[in-house]
Design goal:
Strand content: under 5%
Shape: globular
CATH architecture of the largest domain: Alpha Horseshoe
Helix content: over 70%
Distance between the termini: 57 Å
Structural class: mainly alpha
Number of helices: 15
Length: 291
């Protein structure tokens, strides 16, 4: 009889290198073969993460909630927390911060390991940073990094560095963002996870663009775009086009900047990211074309 765990392992390997269609098929097969709630819940949650990469929010929420229900019924709090996190991340991406905070705080009340605690604190930090509460964001990110270190979770440590760099960009600490971003890129590349490498490159590119290091900024933003093209992640692609548009605007190429912003707006609007749409509307106003 086929081993469902083998399909999960194969799916994780495909996901890591950006072959998301093949990863999804492995996780779907796992659910069909699963004979225990732990395996079924994990495979459903992994499917949810694939759909989130594609910005298919309804499918993500449906699968995350199924995963949470299976785990909750079997009293598997660690897996329940994983599924709640998958749902809460969608709320975060859509800018529904109050709802997301409630879910992350709920996760922290469950019996979970240090890795999962690090994830919850990481996402709370991301929300605090986007609300411009940078002091609280830094506290959350430090707590997250500490829990990831205790857990020996290298991917999480790289992710924490990536978010620290993003917060530094948003708070105007661009040199710090560049330094931390470089550390995040190196850590992500050691782990070989394409999506995280892309996010780290994107954040560092944004910091470099503000410091007028346009060549390196464009290089990193283009590298990030390549990763997100592979994953068909329209929200991240929109963010890459926005940063590339910023570079073109900084060097005086208003027409090219407008073209990049319009493409970014099309993608952000398609996935329903009000937060990114608002940022792009401001960008288009700068080039004389309000959206």
């Amino acid at each position: 009889m086929p081993d469902p765990r083998m399909h999960i392992e194969d799916g994780v390997r495909f996901q890591k290198i950006g072959m998301l269609d093949r990863a999804l098929r492995q996780f779907e097969t796992t659910v069909d073969l699963a004979t225990d709630p732990a395996t079924a819940s994990e495979a459903l949650c992994r499917q949810a993460h694939i759909y989130r990469s594609w910005c298919r929010w309804d499918d993500t929420l449906r699968l995350a909630r199924r995963s949470a229900d299976v785990a909750r019924e079997a009293q598997l709090e660690q897996l329940e927390a994983e599924a709640l996190n998958a749902e809460a991340i969608v709320l975060l991406e859509l800018g529904r911060f109050d709802e997301a905070v409630v879910m992350f705080e709920r996760i922290l009340k469950l019996d979970i390991d240090d890795r999962m605690r690090g994830v919850a604190f990481q996402n709370l930090g991301s929300i605090a940073a986007q609300r411009t509460d940078f002091e609280r964001a830094e506290q959350y990110f430090q707590s997250s990094y500490r829990h990831f270190s205790i857990a020996g979770y290298q991917w999480g440590e790289a992710f924490a560095l990536t978010n620290m760099a993003a917060a530094a960009v948003d708070s105007g600490k661009h040199k710090s963002a560049e330094i931390i971003g470089g550390q995040a890129i190196r850590a992500a590349k050691r782990g070989g996870h394409l999506e995280l490498i892309g996010i780290a490159c994107l954040n560092t590119a944004e910091a470099l663009a503000v410091q007028q290091d346009f060549e390196r900024a464009e290089e990193l933003a283009s590298e990030a775009l390549g990763y997100f093209q592979m994953e068909e992640n329209d929200l991240r692609r929109a963010q890459c086009f926005r940063v590339l548009g910023d570079v073109r605007l900084f060097v005086g190429e208003k027409g090219e900047a407008r073209r990049l912003y319009v493409e970014a707006m099309r993608l952000a609007d398609r996935v329903g990211s009000d937060r990114e749409v608002a940022r792009l509307r401001d960008c288009l106003e700068l080039v004389g074309e309000a959206a």
